[in-house]
Specification:
Number of strands of chain B: 20
Mean pLDDT of chain B: 97
Strand content of chain A: 35-45%
Shape of chain A: globular
Radius of gyration of chain A: 24 Å
Order of helices and strands of chain B: HEEEHEHEEEHEHHHEEEHEHEEEEHEEEE
Oligomer: heterodimer
Distance between the termini of chain A: 55 Å
Structural class of chain A: alpha+beta
Number of helices of chain A: 10
Shape of chain B: globular
Distance between the termini of chain B: 50 Å
Radius of gyration of chain B: 24 Å
Chain lengths: 480, 439
């Protein structure tokens, strides 16, 4: 952070003449280790360092991003930002006076219990080799791998109003997969934390049981080869947190993004079936549906003190007892829409401007265990681990597929089914919510590849959820 | 960063190698203006100047990769690159021999520079906004220089540079009723812009009619080239990658087993010579002009990157297992006769958010979007509310394929996730006797 502060001082001393400016410096480091089929893949040590200057001038706003952090480089970025501010002043969608001015001063750092350096590279590779051995249990396992990735992002935001927000996000992300094949049937299972990313250090290895999980992953991949196809009909559906993550993400998170509602994303990520008049009155789901934007959950992927424009981050209800309360929109979107929002303006890196993103978007727990949810189902399917996702540009008509399904009959789990999928419409689906697991069933997960924006940006997003029960859902299996 | 500066940096780095060390240096960078538009006004505009150096350090049979950003200042960049090289050396002693290490041992040189002049982004945007007056235009303008370079201690010196623009845009009537267009390349022409805008205005006139709601079921359909591009994007996801084939994960598994095939008129090729992407791989291999992926409806060759090539003993013919410059051969249906041949059915202008419904059966789901109409007696009747399809490509490109158009459209990728994409596709439209709509 010292280096970033020095760059910030350099810029501040020669900042462009304008109504308001911000400088956002971002330094990223990552280390990727992977063993696939017993062979160590090329180790990758990646780093990135750059800055984005945002300038408000003459009623317009523009940005300039550069990896040249010399005095001349930062000055050039500021000048280019000012050029675009002037163009925006002439042809802009809104008066840049709406752009939020931040004076926030705050610091954040991920809690790390076990440093990445606490384990030697040789020991990490030995662990991944052991996981490979544990995955290769049968000749029907035709592909397998284990990996360990560490990412550290340090960023410093300074503003002409005296704002200064420094944040250091660190995550260690392990994972496994096994692919099984017999003839024309291939099945895959993920595990070992592959779809369970959180902030933290090497302690994540124990939390996701990387090595211990390997046999289960391989055995389930093989078992799915022989399993019958998921039936095609309408029945009750229990989604485990590993699929709830996607369900929340696609059919609550994206439609509530205020920039979509304002039309910014219509050419790419899409619009929303949610309209401004719905807030405060629209029944999004059943009484059991409580959804929060919560940047305070320890370890969740987007826990932070402020967003990338300096808005202080705090917990907010988006949906309470099924009623829509507020969208996901940062201060600029809030000002443009005349609606409340959240501190969720984020960028994927120094070279992309902040836009409205999900942060930690969580479905709050209800009561009871997973077994109690299953006991309430006479005829249904339980689905685990997202495999396929697709939803319309208004975020309404969706179809999701999972890696593994289990039939439920008369309140008991029965056999495996393969290629399980389900379809629905967001505006109706959440009203079918009839059971939400208790706090002991809550899992803090997320996705690491949420794509959106023009120019395109991919970011991590946190989602916490218990397993949930939905009534009368259209389910189906594979085959032509 | 320009060619001379990059090669000079590589020379200085390589002069410090010791023993049997080999170093591959790859540069990727751009100086781009991005202008985001909403309601035919500027929503967000700015400039991005980036340069990323990727190093691959090899010693004997061991290798390590790493990357860092460059500043453009020769002294600073040498410091950063040497620091990265030192980290790679530290890591190299901890990794075992890599049996799939594979790089070109034949020195080679190439240089390709495309595009000489495009208007300043501010001027083009002002012209666009004026010409689109009255339209609810939304989208992204991206323009400027893209460059890629390779320099190795073996003697590779390759450079690829282009100056281009890409306007990816749509015009909305209301809610999700919209039509879409693309305009990109190396020459900005006002006449082309106006012709595209006229076509969009005509599309919006049809879009203004009351939308038709279709029931799930099978419908006769014409898929415009932009819609076909989305289906090709799914095939690019494991359809041609050698590793996916050898591990039975390809969605074309049934085809490779001889159990299914596409229509004999389906010929798919990776057309490196026609494409806009660099002609070399990061490991120094030169891409062949063309790779036949599907020939006469049956599987041709896989795309083979360096690592998979070593693992499976195949000749390298691509930078990765995913096509960059895909071409689908044209058929014999004149595009201006597509509606009359469709007669009654669905005209699908674009598809959206496709994913595998069941990869074992090459079954894809996705949504209709932008410019999708109901057609009767060869005439547009009404727009159609968005529908979800769920169908196998063995049907859409196989037993239900009636015709491919005689003309093809060049579609330039507007993707900018890892910098501005140089991918492109040259595709005809497809007439199919049925597509399954599920929701």
């Amino acid at each position: 952070m010292e280096q970033l502060s020095a760059f910030a001082d350099r810029f501040s001393s020669q900042a462009p003449a304008c109504e308001y400016w911000t400088l956002r410096l971002v330094e990223e480091e990552s280390d990727h280790l992977e063993v696939r089929q017993g062979v160590v893949e090329p180790s990758a040590l990646d780093s990135s360092l750059g800055a984005m200057v945002t300038v408000v001038r003459g009623g317009g706003i523009g940005y300039g991003a550069t990896s040249d952090l010399s005095a001349a480089g930062l000055r050039a970025a500021g000048e280019r930002a000012a050029d675009w501010a002037l163009a925006h002043a002439r042809l802009g969608l809104f008066d840049a006076g709406l752009y939020p001015r931040a004076s926030t001063r705050a610091d954040y750092r991920s809690t790390i219990l076990e440093s990445w350096k606490a384990m030697a590279v040789a020991d990490k590779l030995a662990l991944l080799q052991a996981a490979n051995t544990a995955l290769a249990i049968d000749e029907r396992i035709v592909d397998w791998a284990a990996w360990l990735m560490r990412r550290r992002v340090s960023q410093l935001l300074v503003t002409s109003d005296g704002g200064r927000v420094s944040q250091v996000f660190e995550s260690v992300h392990p994972g496994l997969f096994a692919v099984a094949n017999a003839g024309s049937q291939t099945q895959r299972r993920l595990g070992g934390g592959a779809d369970w990313a959180q902030q933290g250090g090497l302690e994540r290895l124990a939390a996701v049981r990387l090595l211990d999980d390997a046999p289960r992953v391989a055995e389930e991949a093989i078992a799915l080869l022989e399993a019958p196809e998921c039936p095609e009909d309408t029945r009750d559906l229990i989604l485990l947190p590993s699929q709830m993550v996607l369900q929340i993400h696609e059919s609550i998170g994206h439609p509530l993004e205020l920039d979509r509602i304002l039309g910014d994303e219509r050419n790419y990520a899409g619009t929303s079936f949610v309209t401004p008049g719905m807030f405060g009155r629209y029944r999004y789901g059943s009484e059991l549906l409580d959804v929060t934007f919560d940047p305070t959950v320890p370890g969740e992927l987007v826990s932070m003190v402020a967003d990338d424009e300096g808005a202080p981050a705090q917990r907010e209800y988006l949906i309470r007892r099924g009623i829509l309360e507020r969208p996901l929109g940062g201060p600029l979107s809030q000002a443009r829409a005349g609606l409340p929002g959240t501190a969720n303006t984020r960028a994927s890196g120094w070279d992309r401007p902040p836009i409205d993103r999900m942060g930690n978007l969580n479905l709050e727990p209800g009561e009871g265990s997973l077994d109690e949810l299953i006991a309430r189902v006479e005829r249904g399917v339980l689905m685990d681990t997202n495999r396929s996702w697709s939803i319309d540009d208004s975020r309404n008509k969706f179809q999701f597929g999972c890696e593994l399904g289990r039939l439920i009959e008369d309140g008991e789990l029965k056999g495996l089914v393969r290629n399980p999928g389900y379809r629905g419409i967001s505006a109706e689906f959440w009203r079918r919510l009839d059971g939400v697991g208790g706090p002991e069933t809550l899992e803090i997960r997320g996705v690491t590849n949420c794509g959106k924006g023009e120019p395109n940006q991919s970011v991590s997003v946190g989602h916490a959820s218990p397993p949930c029960l939905f009534r009368d859902v259209a389910v189906f299996g594979g085959g032509e | 960063m320009n060619q001379d500066a990059f090669f000079a940096l590589a020379d200085r780095l390589q002069s410090g190698l010791s023993g049997a060390e080999i170093l591959f240096c790859n540069l990727s960078g751009e100086a781009s203006d991005f202008v985001r538009l909403n309601r035919n006004r500027i929503r967000q505009a700015g400039h991005v100047r980036s340069a990323a150096l990727a190093l691959n350090l090899i010693d004997g049979a061991r290798q390590v990769e790493g990357s860092c950003d460059l500043t453009g200042d020769a002294r600073q960049d040498l410091i950063r690159a040497r620091h990265l090289l030192a980290r790679l050396r530290e890591r190299l002693v901890h990794v075992p021999d890599d049996p799939y290490l594979h790089y070109s041992t034949e020195p080679g040189e190439s240089q390709r520079k495309v595009g000489e002049q495009i208007p300043p982004a501010e001027e083009a945007i002002a012209e666009l906004i004026a010409a689109a007056a009255g339209l609810d235009l939304v989208g992204i303008w991206a323009s400027g220089e893209i460059h890629e370079g390779l320099a190795s201690s073996i003697g590779h010196r390759h450079w690829h540079q282009s100056l281009s623009f890409n306007l990816d845009w749509s015009c909305y009537l209301e809610a999700d009723k919209a039509v879409k267009a693309g305009l990109g390349g190396f020459h900005w022409e006002t006449a082309t812009l106006n012709r595209k805008l006229d076509a969009l205005r005509e599309g919006l006139r049809i879009m203004a009619r009351p939308a038709r709601t279709l029931e799930p079921g099978r419908y006769r359909a014409y898929l415009a080239p932009a819609a076909v591009n989305e289906l090709m994007g799914m095939l690019a996801w494991g359809g041609f990658d050698l590793k996916s084939h050898r591990t039975h994960q390809t969605p074309l598994l049934l085809m490779t087993r001889g159990e299914r095939r596409f229509d004999p008129r389906v010929h798919l090729r990776e057309e490196h010579a026609r494409g806009l992407a660099a002609g070399f791989t990061a490991e120094g291999f030169v891409k062949p002009d063309r790779v036949t992926l599907i020939e006469g409806g049956t599987f041709g060759q896989c795309l083979v990157d360096a690592r998979s090539g070593r693992e499976y003993g195949e000749t390298v013919n691509a930078a990765s297992g995913s096509p960059e410059s895909l071409g689908l051969d044209a058929g014999d249906l004149p595009m201006d006769e597509a509606l009359s041949r469709l007669d009654t059915g669905l005209y699908i202008g674009n598809l959206w958010y496709c994913n595998w419904s069941d990869p074992n059966d090459c079954r894809v789901t996705g949504m209709t979007r932008f410019g999708t109409y109901w057609v009767e007696n060869g005439e547009f009747v009404s727009p159609v509310k968005v529908m979800r399809f769920d169908d196998s490509l063995y049907h859409l490109l196989g037993d239900r394929l009636e015709a491919l158009t005689a003309e093809r459209e060049l579609i330039l990728s507007a993707q900018t996730y890892d910098g501005r994409s140089t991918d492109s596709a040259l595709l005809p439209g497809l007439l199919v006797s049925g597509i399954n709509l599920a929701l």
